[in-house]
# Entry
Amino acid sequence: MAIEVAILGATGAVGQRFIQLLENHPWFRVTEVVASERSSEKSYAEATNWVLTGSIPSDVAGLTVKSLDAPLTSPIVFSALPSTVAGEVEARLAAAGHYVCSNASTYRMADDVPILMPEVNAGHLQLIERQRSERGWKGALVTNSNCTAAPLVMAMAPLRQFQPKVLHVVSMQAISGAGYPGVASLDILDNVIPYIGGEEEKLKKEPSKMLGDYTNGKIDPLVMTVSAACNRVPVLDSHLVCVSAKFAEKPHLDDIYMAWEEFRGPDPVPGLPSAPNPPLIVMQENDRPQPRRDRDAGSGMATVIGRLRPCDVLDVQFIALAHNTIRGAAGCSILNAELMVAEGYINGITAATAESAVASA
# Structure
């Protein structure tokens, strides 16, 4: 029997991406969909303006949409709620014994909540024990990063050995990052918008926490200075970041290439159903990566890196790209849940349960 999961904010763009990615998942099955009051009590098909390719999966289309205050039975809950409403709902569900994998920013910087990216910081899951002890929760809450931090952190994780000290980051972010219906066409067509509310602050703070070390019940952030400039560009999907980096000692370019090429993440991450192999794809062409050509690498879960070269101001420059609604949102949350199952963090559900689900699928 597959592990039952619920989707909060199921009718929105990221909620739809969850449902698309979970179709035929070997471990998980969507059994509950949750949305705002105006959608509740309707069938999912009636309540949803489906904006992704393909059709609504048939086993989800007929599900009745539940309200945000409805009790849930699924042990795993994926949250695509906006931050304005996520806080109370996610905390209530975690306290009640559910394992919430959230895309919202509400709890990311809380001392006892991991911003989890399994290849980078799987050990941060140990914060769950602190949550249970200090908050009295029966379940747990983990978050994934801001969608623009995702390619930056994935690219920098193998380079921690060189002790990064300063990062200058310029983002080019897809319009799907603004949700549906996104940015008005008269604003984004033939244009670049050089401001996205709250994004630069997140890009300055989240990577240090994600790249830090778990020690004695807390995360010691990686000490580095991050300067960020975030821009909305007329691209449908995928965020691209241009990065200049300074290290304690300037590494040779070949050493950086080797670190990227060899990076896989700790066991059991490479063997999880949603884990890309390899997680980093390094391109040698001068004009890559490109959103339209590279965003679907690794089924949208890989980070694509290119244009590594010396920097005349800092040490090195490069470009990193990731699909913002897959690696930067729904796909990462699903991978986070897979890791929690594989590591035995979820009460009553173990890796053996997951393997049994695979066998019976």
